């Protein structure tokens, strides 16, 4: 039986440590089904969408800031699917919409993917604006399941060999500690993006976040002093300025700042994990690690912070409470209650793939169902003014890292053999296991626009 003609897919990657492994997983699934898949840096693609042959593109968000970019992408002939990277943990539906969702932006989307039923319900008014939508979960969380442990187990073993037993603090303070933007620039950027009460409360929101950061830095220093023989590792969020952390703890021999690699091996290797209103807390919980949230009682628990992570992991509100918690878990006296019924129920309502690692297959099937751009799209692409090759030079996805992930996914039965990725004119291309010359006639040319 003749297989359907391969389609072209572009998977955009923004934050490597957070997204690359999941993007390669989804891409490996699509390429194993016989499609042409490219991994491309998000900013590079957005700067010149008409420099790529019309394809089915998986984008990252629904914000007001995406509106002009999505217009340009559609005008260049692409089909647009979206999964918001911020759709898992948020305080309320109204706050999520005011910060992360623009109805006008949604009008340019062909397929909308939801993390879970809660996000779908909170964005119910958008469903009628989008031709197709589906609750799938996120492939990032497929990697937490046992089937995919072997894809990052070697990294975990190397971390344990290098660091031994350690307590891990994860951070989520890029809004007030960005590696590139000043706080003033962050405020200006978010004023353009936020609407309603979220925009009005922006100064107070960031002020509270600065307080939380100061309390978090303080409690890490206090724990390091109280437990001088324990190694503490701080893992800044990938978009944070790691130098701030290094400067704070340069005189603490038992505090290490490590921003390298993806989070999962670090979470799994840690003796115990502390977070602050962070998705990594839920990830650690799903990995069966002892984990708690630190949220100082000195800072008012605001209406801005997501409650789900703390509801899942529990919360310590003082340095004494956190010290007692760490001591208990470093001694190994506590049993890991890794599947509390209430916490599992909470996660289930927010995350479709909480039990099975099937988000990447559901999304691949949905993307396959989209009609590929036709001749009219190619004409629009040629006529578009969004062709600017000079803006496309900077690349940061590492081919060796992609190939290491592809090898690992063979062991996880995503593919039956390793097929290396290649670098072509515009991005990293995931190759099919076998290329059928008739099926691929005309598609093996570069995606680069005419």
Model description:
With 450 residues, the protein is an alpha/beta fold. It has two domains: 8-141 and 357-440, Rossmann fold (3-Layer(aba) Sandwich); 148-350, Glycogen Phosphorylase B (Rossmann fold, 3-Layer(aba) Sandwich). The chain is 44% helix and 13% strand. It has 22 helices and 14 strands. It has an eight-stranded mixed beta sheet with strand order 6-5-4-3-1-2-14-13, with helices on both faces. Mean pLDDT is 90; it is low at 435-446.
Structure summary:
By secondary structure, this protein is an alpha/beta fold. It has 22 helices and 14 strands.
Radius of gyration: 22 Å
Mean pLDDT, to the nearest integer, reads: 90
Give the strand order of the largest sheet, numbering strands 1, 2, ... along the chain.
Answer: 6-5-4-3-1-2-14-13
The profile of the biggest β sheet is: 8 strands, mixed
How many domains is the backbone divided into? 2
The low-confidence runs, each spanning 5 or more residues with pLDDT under 50, are 435-446
Percent strand? 5-15%
CATH topology of the largest domain, by name, is: Rossmann fold
Total of DSSP H or I helical runs spanning 4+ residues: 22
Q: For this structure, what is the CATH class of the largest domain?
A: Alpha Beta
